[in-house]
Amino acid sequence: MAPTVAQIPAGPRIGDYVSLGVLSRTFSASAIDHVLTETGKQSVRKRDLPARIIVYYVLAMTLFMQASYGEVLQCLLEGLDWLRGSDPRVRRAGKSGFSQARTRLGSEPFRQLHDQFVGPIATEKTRGAWYRRWSLVSLDGSTLDVADNAANEAAFERPGSNRGHPAYPQIRFVSLVENGTHVLFGSRMDGCRTAEITLAWGVLGHLKEGMLCLADRSFFSDAIWRRALSDTISSSAL
């Protein structure tokens, strides 16, 4: 039986507003505007849906993953009203308008926000996060199912199978994982037919001086090791 779409309870909830407040404080408007400018996605004319609002909308959907898009939108707009007052023009946009705005925005601003804000969080007292003076991280990869539709199948493909047609298209990702906290950072993703070692090349630049990186045999490569060492030395010299 198909799962029932969750709904955010009717009426304002202080917890929702606090969540949105933390979101807007962590990802400041100036930081988002900088990323939008760097990626060429800043709104160049007045729209009903400014690019900054769309960024907050996508981020808000990660807070309420089980709720429908419409419910998240309602919570976002009410929360922005409560926090600082939002532009009433946004209310005139429907669901299709938000979908088109998300397509215009693309994924690159979110990748840059991820790379800028997501990183190790362990303290000196975090168990399992250290070996002597080194911060322990692991290089690893996996796959995730995505919605079964033609667009996702074309973009990411389906995994090979000798047991029939796979149920879902999949993405493959490779990340650095902070041992002890399990925070994933420096992540790179592509279609499921892309090899993990190919994605690993884009992750290596997130290694920093003082990290001890563990990796399984899938990443056994002298070229990978030399690239990681070179990137680490370069980043420590900046």
Largest sheet: 5 strands, mixed
- Please tell me the overall pLDDT: 80
Q: Report the β-strand fraction as a percent range.
A: 15-25%
Order of helices and strands: HHHHHHEEHEEHEH
Q: Which value, in Å, is the CA radius of gyration? A: 20 Å
Structural class, from helix and strand content?
Answer: alpha+beta
- Given as residue ranges, the uncertain stretches (5+ residues, pLDDT < 50) are none
Overall shape: globular
| Straight-line distance between termini | 55 Å
* Number of DSSP helical runs: 9
Task: Determine the fraction of residues in helical runs and give it as a percent range.
Answer: 40-55%
Number of domains: 2
Query: What's the total number of strands?
Result: 5
Task: Output the keywords.
alpha+beta; 9 helices; globular
Structure description:
The chain is built from 9 helices and 5 strands; from the N terminus they run H-H-H-H-H-H-E-E-H-E-E-H-E-H. The chain is α+β, with helices and mostly antiparallel strands. It has 2 domains: 14-116, no CATH class; 119-237, no CATH class. Strands 1, 2, 3, 4 and 5 form a 5-stranded mixed beta sheet that branches. Helix 1 crosses helix 4 (69-83).
Question: Which helices and strands occur, and which strands form pairs?
Answer:
Blueprint: H1 14-26, H2 29-38, H3 51-63, H4 69-83, H5 95-105, H6 108-117, E1 130-131, E2 134-145, H7 150-156, E3 170-178, E4 183-191, H8 196-200, E5 211-215, H9 222-237
Parallel strand pairs: 2-5
Antiparallel strand pairs: 1-2, 2-3, 3-4
